[in-house]
Amino acid sequence: MLPSAESIQIIVPVASIALLVMSLKNPVYGVIAYFVVLNAKLGDMYPVLGAVRFELIVALFVMVRILFSTRGHGNFLPRVNPINTALWLLFAVGMISVAFSLFPGVSWNEGGYFLLKMTIFYIMIVTTVHTSADLSRILWAFILITAWIAYEPVVNYISGNVDEQLYGAVAVGRFGAATGHVAFANTLNQVIPVLIFFAFRDRTMFVKTISLAILGLLAFGVYASKSRGGFLGLFVTAMGIVYFSRDRMKAGIIAGAFMFVFLTIAASDYISHMSTITEGIHASRTASDRYLGLVNGVSMMIKRPVLGVGIGCYAEARRHYFHYYFYSHNLYGELFGELGIASVVWFFFIYQIFKRASAIKRTLDPSRARDTYYTNIITAIQLGLFVRLFVGNFTHGSLIWFWFMMAALTVAVQNILLQEERSPLPEPDHMKPE
What is the pTM of this model? Predict the structure, then answer.
């Protein structure tokens, strides 16, 4: 019998503190500590930590540690990378939207504050990841913290501790993404490209075995979430892995076998629920809400075209305009409604990540082992972003950490290559990282 998450959760704060101590030697461990605190929701897990603002304390500690480091201080500046420029443009527009929002207090609490946190998180990564070893540490933290998020709902599901819905039993957890089945499924899907293209490429059998076990945990978690968007996200992820693989025939057979086994062992109620996807927006109230979330977002943009209702204000504005308090459950409706025409800066930010990622890949030689390492990471970033954009049709989250982390890692890869004097694009001297 697997131990409950509650019985072993002490490892999370202990690991966080240990990582903070290790950051005295290498600040990247401090970034990982903050990442753990951010995702594990330690303030909710241990209310006393929430009361003392432990997350804020960790963030301040990490930023001070970075300040006292000897390199990387300017890596977040616009002149260093076009992604940085896009980020600061998004930050400026987002904060202006708070000031001119329909409900400034709500906009700050639900949007501006999170944008500030994610910008700081971005700065943490680009100023501390200087080597391939640092890059690997961040990616393994991404994989392992996602496995931790998956663990509690999966164990609960196996133990019969579930949330009963009209379409069956749903896996749930106590904190963060694990509390909502859609967010839970999407959180698991977004790490699978990193798991496949980074972790599985390790040559040691131990790492491959651990990676396979985590993949099984994530796939079962998506199944237990009963999220139709999560299922589609898993399918798109599988197709993307085939597309980006060198041997597409082999990858296609493996992906096809995986999906066949997945659907074969799935319960009949799961298959029945997933089959409603073919009915489109008429499948259920939750399906129509996704479409309505887009429609209401466009309506908000028409009412307030330049800056929208303000970041974080979608649900409150929906109540104000349509007498219906509910989040958009549609990324694009959220963006159009909250930022109006200015939402173009968010899409420009994502575009710059894809553009720089493609530029990096063009300079790499897949036949060289070291280049293959970077190629795989960039591929994982590209596929992860694509999957997230796809599931954005069924969920909101324009300011989640994933976008900012993928952007920061792309910048970090380019910075490492620049240090090796292999610039992804011809750059003037002033664009070299510190």
Answer: 0.92
